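Annex B.
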Amino acid sequence: MDFAAEESINSFLNLGKMSDNEETSDAENTTPSGSATLPLRPPCDRPSCKSSVCSRSYFVVVMVFFHVYIINVIALLFYVHYNSGQDDTSQSRDAPSSNQQRPEPRRPPSKPEFLRDGALTRIEGIRVGHVQKVSLVQNKVHEMRTLSLKPLLFEIPGFLSEDECRIVMQLAQLKGLMESQLMVQDGQEELAKELNLSPEEIFNLLDINQDGQLQLHEILTHSRVRDGIWLTPENLREIYTGLKADKDGNGLLSLEEFRLLSNDAFQRFLLQRGVKRSQLVRNSRHTWLYQGKGAHQVLQDIKARVTRLTRLPPTLVDLSEPLQVVRYEEGGHYHAHHDSGPVYPETACTHTRLAANTSTPFETSCRYITVLFYLNSVEGGGETAFPVADNRTYDEVSLIQNDVDLLDTRRNCDKSNLRVKPTKGTAVFWYNYLSDGRGWVGEQDEYALHGGCVVTHGTKWVANKWINIDPDYQRQARYQQLVSQQPDDEDDEGPTLNSDIQSSDIHQDL
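Transmembrane prolyl 4-hydroxylase: predicted structure tokens.
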């Protein structure tokens, strides 16, 4: 055994002895009462003190390293943040022309955008039968009664005086009236070729419920709109027989049966057989009377009265269609229709098509409001019928069921929900569109379906004032700007969409 090993053994034995002496000393220091007196600890030069010292030292070292680590992390975060800010600043200084001027590439708009500077006034109907006082002319108060809420429809008795009714009819006769509808419209075959539609595509367009068969009402709707001829289910069955179109005789056309017909097969058959005036969609004569500067004072007064009635900006009324005057002889009628059509993205309004700056094959008359004046009292018939006024729901397919056609004002006017009797001087007006909820024109109000019942005795004279507004605000604003730039309109109202008259006191509830 070498000297180092011997020293290690002796140290171990001495450590054991010292431990026994400590136990003895502890026992001797115990007082009789059982309490122990702590001995004075010598300086930590004994082997028994080494473990506690090492533990404290280890703890201190760990805590120092931990704090140093946290401080380094914080310093690193500050360094990264500071450097990234400097990099952004230096990059912006290095390339000011590319980054500062256009952070995101963006093309300038091709058309100027117009901000809405006002909302269209829309009169509240409150409830059916509600009466409001309306101040339209000086020293006179008219009563306006709500006739329906769907559509929003009002009646104003005495809107025109007897003299005004007489002058309007005389001006129309002086200018001359023309037929409201030609017997049969031509050019449908050319239009179909231009659109390049296949028989399958036309079939799908006509098949409203997409059941793979064309019902009578689907063919009737198409023929009335396209040809302007008011066919009844009986007429259609007669045409089927004459053209041998319905092979199985079930009253329905399949795609195979439809393929055998040309686009103008119905037209040619009707031309060969002959069409009566009573079979047209409308049977009347009409003319247009200008209401601008230089027009008869009565016509200008009517336009101003309409502006106060509707509470719309004068510019919108000025830029709308002229006054239409219509005469229905005995037997005259106008089957149920909408004054304005729905506007889709591919559809343009007739009055703003120039400002639309786009080409589209579809146009519709965007008539926000219709004001209808009765110029005489009719001896028999001639009512204005609203077939589905205030219905709970609207379903185009249900308008023709069981050979009862609610659109037919010659046969079924008595089945309409609402009929207005023509009385001289009375005006009725309604909204053809709903509100979009933001103060502008919204979707078409389908409940505004209306027609003129057949005149059974006498003659019927009416006048129509339509107020044209494009549901697309930008197109309407561009149209008004375009018109305002015309040199001959220097004294006309500007293209602002805000009303220049304070009309809050015009309408009062009774």
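The chain is about 35% helix and 20% strand. The CA atoms of residues 10 and 23 lie 21 Å apart. Further annotation is deferred to the next reporting cycle.
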